[in-house]
Amino acid sequence: MNNEKILYMVVPCYNEEAVLPETAKRLKEKYSSLIERNLISPESRIVFVNDGSKDKTWDIIQELHNSDSATFSGINLARNSGHQNAVLAGLMTVKDICSMAITMDADLQDDINAIDAMVEKYHEGNHVVYGVRSARNNDTFFKKFTAEGFYKFMSAMGADVVYNHADFRLMSRRVLQELANYREVNLFLRGMVPLIGFQSCSVYYERAERFAGESKYPLKKMLAFAVNGITSFSTKPLKLITTMGFIMSIVSFLAMLWTIIVKFAGASELGWSSTVCSIWFIGGLQLLALGIIGEYVGKIYAEVKQRPRYIVAEFINNSEKEEKEK
C-alpha cells in the first residue's frame, strides 16, 4: 500500500441506535474536512462494529453503508463479545487495508475535533497517539474519584497505562501488525498498546457528556474491568499475598511469645475478644488471598482454552460482504 494517508475509524457499538445517526453525521463532516486539507486519503472509511446489539444498531449501520459506501463500513459480530473484543475485532479486520486507525466510542464523549491533531501527530512520525482527558469537570465526584483512583492504583500495581486515557487513540498499521501478535484472551488494550513500543505522544481534549442513550459501563462492569486490567498486567497482588503471609507469620510468632510470657507471669486468663478478632482477621486474609489466586487461575483457564475472542459474522466494505471468523 503506497498511500500512507488511509484512515479507518473503528467505532464499537452496543445498543447505540439513539446516538449512531448523529455520530455518523459528525464523523462524516470531520472526514470531509480532513480530506480537503489533504491529511487523509479519500479511501478512508468509518467502520462501525456492531457488538451483538439488541436494538436497531446493525440496521442503521447497513443503511449508512448503503447510502454512502464510500464513507461508511460495518462489521457485525456473531454475538456480544464485550467492548475490548469489539475494538480488537475492528482493528484486526482493517489492519491490512489502512495506514492508520483511530478507535473511539460511539457516544460522542470523545472530542471528534481532536482527530485533526492525532492525524497531524501521525504525519510527524508518531506511531501511537493517545487521546487523554485534560480534565474531569463533567464527572460526578464519585466518578472522578474512582476513575482517577483506578489509574493511580494501576500504576502502583506495575501496569504501564497512560493516565486519564481510555480507548480513544490512533495507531499506525505497523503497530496494528504487532498488536496482532498479542494472543491473550483477557484483553486490556489500555495496557497492551503501551507494551508494543514505538514513538508515541498524547493529544489532550475535554470529554463531553454522552449525547444520547445510557452508559454501557455501570459500576459493576467498571470494577470487573479494573480487576481484569490489574490481573492481566501485574503479579503484584500475588507478591502482596506473600508479603502478608510473612507479616502474619511474624505477628503470630510474637503473639506466641506474648502468650508464653503471660502464662509464666501467672496471668493466663486471656481475653475472648482478642482471640475471636484474631481468628476473623486471619480467616479474612486467607479468603482474600484465595480470591486473588482464584482470579489468576481463572485467567489461566481462559487462556489455555484459546477460544475465539470474537467472531465476525459480516463485514460490509465498499459494497462487498465478506464473512470472516477468528
How would you sum up this structure in a few lines?
It contains 10 helices and 9 strands. The protein is α/β, with parallel strands linked by helices and 326 residues long.
Give structural notes.
There is one protein chain. The protein is α/β, with parallel strands linked by helices. It starts with 6 loop residues before the first strand and ends with a strand. Helix 9 packs antiparallel against helix 10. The protein folds into two domains: 7-220 and 308-322, Spore Coat Polysaccharide Biosynthesis Protein SpsA, Chain A, CATH 3.90.550; 236-305. It has ten helices and nine strands.
Strand order of the largest sheet: 7-5-6-4-1-2-3-8-9
Give the radius of gyration. 25 Å
Shape: elongated
| Terminal residue distance | 24 Å
What is the CATH class of the largest domain?
Alpha Beta
Q: What's the helix-strand series?
A: EHEHEHEHEHEHHEHHHEE
Total number of strands: 9
Going by CATH, the architecture of the largest domain would be: Alpha-Beta Complex
The CATH topology label of the largest domain is: Spore Coat Polysaccharide Biosynthesis Protein SpsA, Chain A
Number of domains: 2
| Protein structure class | alpha/beta
Q: Figure out the total of helices.
A: 10
Low-confidence stretches: 319-326
CATH superfamily of the largest domain: Spore Coat Polysaccharide Biosynthesis Protein SpsA, Chain A
User: Helix content range of the residues, please?
Assistant: 40-55%
Mean pLDDT: 79
Topology:
Blueprint: E1 7-13, H1 20-36, E2 45-50, H2 57-67, E3 72-77, H3 83-94, E4 100-103, H4 114-123, E5 128-133, H5 141-156, E6 165-172, H6 173-179, H7 189-196, E7 200-205, H8 219-233, H9 236-264, H10 272-305, E8 312-317, E9 320-322
Parallel strand pairs: 1-2, 1-4, 2-3, 5-7
Antiparallel strand pairs: 3-8, 4-6, 5-6, 8-9
